[in-house]
Amino acid sequence: MAFRNHIPGNGTGGSICRRGSLPPALTALFLAGLLQITSGCAAARLTQFHNFAQAGTAYTKASQAVLDEAGTAAIEADSLIAQKGRDGLRTPDERRQFIVGENQELRKRLVLLGDIGRHARLLQSYFETLAALADPKAPATLGTAAQGVFDSIGGLSPAIKSASLGGVKIGDHIPQATSFAVQVFKAKALENELKARSKAIERELALQEAAFTVITSTLETDLAVQLQLEETEEVIEPFAAAKDLPKGWAVHREEILRARVAAASSKAAQEAAAKLRESFVALVENRLSEPSIAGIITAINSMLNSTEAIKKATPTQ
Known about the structure:
By secondary structure, the protein is an all-alpha fold. It has 7 helices and 2 strands. Helices cover 69% and strands 1% of the residues. It has a two-stranded antiparallel sheet. α2 packs antiparallel against α4 (188-240). The N and C termini lie close together (11 Å). The relative contact order is 0.15.
């Protein structure tokens, strides 16, 4: 099963440069390696951007697991509904039209989920470019690279904003814009980049937050359909029947109950996106703190916990 290793936050105190610095080490499956904070404000600032970029990488990988689960749950819930309602469709033509229409809608949903995943990966690439720009010795050409990534992000945004899942428009859930000021040490190329695009990137992170607000709601609904049927057919009815319970009944019962709880509280992806956005604003203002990164890691672990619980109870995936 994917994503069984979680992301531990390991922070220790260190010297503070201006308003914030990060812990000397962050270890994780996605946060690779040991990150050492060197002395001096410029080095600490560079480390902040580097650590934030790696937190963004962890978020991207974990959020992709949620997107994959959302797509699978949508297909399985729709298939269950189609199977149960098939007898009500009288003719082959009615059944054909029904399933063709459902397939078209599911393809649209999968395309949208794919676009949201690509949007997150482009943001990750942008954060990695910022981390490189934080080095005062960074070449000016990195600014051109950042512009190219930003343009690609902007190319995906309109379709995501205007899209709907379960009748809910994603663009209606974008949080209000934040007002913040750019503060950078010594890295002129980075300062120019942040002044030009930091507010726009904050809006793109807000779009991720809005997307996962809607995705987690539809995921909860789709899983409720699947898990309710599974609980009825594999837990309740076998127990009520006058024969021996199937092998593994108790284990499967526990998995289904835990998955229903996880599905009913699967808001961690939305929370992680919100924390990433808030931390980006703090990063730009040079006030990113250890608790900010720890908060992202905690939310990512919650995302993985929910996904694991759901996968255990849905063995057909």
